[in-house]
Fold this protein.
Amino acid sequence: MARKTVERNISYDDVRGLYYVYMDYGSDEGGHRIKQYRTCPSLSTARRLLREFRAELDNHRQVAPRAVTLDQWLEYWMEQVILPNRAETTVYGYRKIIENHLSDALGDVPIQKLTPQHLQTYYTALMRDKGLSANTVRRHHDLLSAALHMAMRQDMILRCPTERVEPPRVIPHEAKYYGPEELKRLYALAEGTWLELIVKLAGMLGLRREEICGLRWCSVDFVQRKLHVCEARTAAGARIIQKETKNRSSNRILHLTDELVRLLKRERARQAENRLALGERYEDSGMVAADRFGRPLSPNAVSLAFTRFISKNGLPKITLHGLRHTFATVASAQGAPLFDIGKALGHSTPSTTGRIYTHLLDQNHEATLARVANALK
């Protein structure tokens, strides 16, 4: 005998001796009904299961069964959520994580069956088998967390598995910097070279290399002796992108010293000479950091040139970004408050400055203890 309906959404199969509960999740985007069957040994059990299902559905504790894989969800999330709302460099970074790692490891897993164990095993494999650092793997976790929380908000999954894992602990980066004497030596060696302006913008103002490379002449006010930091030039793979600064606090106005005014005027005069000498071959990009043809300098090329300059002259190893750390360290040694240092660097909060420059807090701590000890003598 065929399966027969006992009551609404419950039927009985007398051959198998089982009750079938029909659970209706509504319609999908195409108007097709989403349904699922569960079997029960008795009518009372079937009725209880149906009551629980309806209560959970009413209280949003049920989601419709979907066969969407992690790959499919990440593709949707990238195209509809990330691409319209994030910087191109962020999009590029996310795509590399997905293409190089996530897709191969977990891409075929349906997101409704993705477990904390899947993720925990994935993190461990990245560090143990692929040699990725804890900080790098933490970026994978942050990506998954954002994507899967969106899946939960859009009723694709009931719970977010990233909430039930132990992500790698971020290891704070130890900032490397020069002392005043080392910085003076660097300035002396760079004097007269094209790198002089670059290293002094980093060391005297604490600018990021992307901010230096993204600086336009229209942002330099020689009359008011002000520099408006509002753009950055950065790399997304092989692409070079001119964009707004990192965040609102990074958009700032800084005072220009006599030395920086002199160097900026010298660079502007050099570019004017090249424009006259090269004629139509000169590409006037309007950038402060430009080559002899007027083309903007690449951030990676500037960093590489600086690294080679350091090595050639036997200076302690440091990155161009290390001069930004040097600026903060020297400013703190001269008594500048952490808040003012953070504002000059374009940090959003003093806690950001304190987290990056823990050695400054240690120095301030020592000075405070010394003052207390002196007061009690």
